[in-house]
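INTERNAL AUDIT FORM
Audit reference: QA-55
Scope: verify that the stored structure record matches its stored sequence.
Auditor: D.O.
Record contents follow.
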Amino acid sequence: MRVAVLAHEMFPDRAKTAVGLLRYSDYEVEAVLDRENAGTQVSDFIADVQDAPIVAGMDDAPEVDALIIGIAPIGGGFDESWRPDVRTALERGCDLVSGLHYFLEDDEEFADLAAENDADIWDVRRPHDDLTVAQGVADEVDAEVVLTVGTDCSVGKMTATCELLEAAEDRGVDAGFVPTGQTGIMIEGWGNPIDRVVSDFTAGAVEEMIVEKGDDHDYLFVEGQGSIVHPAYSAVTCGILHGAMADKLVLCHAAGREAIHGYEDTAIPPISTYVDLYEDLARPVHETEVVAGALNTRAVDDDAAARDAVEEFGGQLGGPATDPVRFDADEVLEAIL
């Protein structure tokens, strides 16, 4: 499917959904909408992903089948400056895909335009109606369950999950991906949006996916969310940890980050503290361990410096580590398998 991806004023650093789609999805991205960078190309900012022109708005985009909202600001709200682009897309008969907490199909203008132009709206973060509490049975599936956990939001948990999945498949391992956030769900075409689920049902929503896929694969790679110390998002992190009943954990971190993004008065604890926190919190439900780490070194320009940062990170967590995008994932994957 041919798509345009909206990422106004946030591409690429704060448009992780857009970047994730460019790197891992099967969509043919025909254009990225970003007023600040119009006239450039994706390849001017990011290597090794689909290339596409960056345009000022939907009026400048080529013919596409859908417009995807490729950014997810804190709180998941809809910016009214995006309305003209969404309106234009729907008037052109394009479907609309959104991972916002603001449901676009509930917007009267957008719903009317979609009906008039035979377009569909998919609000990825709308959970289905049959979710319930966890039964504590995720550990009964045949697959080995591997969960990425983080020191903060936006440190690369979904990226690490996708990279490890691809590395495992390249090695001939029968592996599956369990998406828990909007980008992963868009890539895979299925999943439960855990950060939108009623809190009592969070672990159950994860368990449901584990049970659905757990006997179809030898390994399941579960996309983590948030951080166990995050002032706003720790609840979803704990729900995924207990619902997945993971056999192994991969700790993800962003090189150089010293405070929680958006909550700069909350310092990042030592890496060893995270290892203890995640393992201790998981243990009463299902014993697990942090076996490896994934370090996002995108902010480090020099490869040698990035390797040094990875080595230091591995020493702090007491296991193998890598930047799975910049370097290979062999040693980390070996620790998992």
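Auditor finding: record pair retrieved intact. Residues 303-317 form the longest helix (15 residues).
Action required: none
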